[in-house]
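debug: dumping io for the single-chain case to check the tokenizer round-trip. Nothing else runs in this session.
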Amino acid sequence: MKACFLVLIAFVAISPVLGQSESDFRVSVNLSGDGVVIDKYLGKEKIVVIPATIQGFPVREIGERVFERTYDVISVTIPEGVTKIGKVAFLGCFYLASLTLPSSLRYIGEEAFMYCHSLPLPTQAQLRKLGYEGRF
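debug: decoded output
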């Protein structure tokens, strides 16, 4: 009984490191046809690690309203290769306290992080340097 319990704890402790399942995301092919846009997060995890590829295509964009009002999410890691975060993508993610951004990011849509009150000031400053002008 103790061995099963320890294995379960180990799995729960490392599962965020493994990333999300492709089925946690609804995607579409981007306009240039060289990757996918994440259209919606369907998962239930609090710590979200977006995979670099889904269905064999590189993830290029986080679309509009992908994480809107996903109250349980506290951390999101966006992979290298993502160049765009759409409008209001994280609207109302009140408890989002950790955000890892790729160096490939070039565009952040209007109010993408509106009502993300838990983002720390250094993260807010990093977003401002990338051109984000919306409210937190």
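debug: round-trip ok. The helical segments are 2-18, 121-129.
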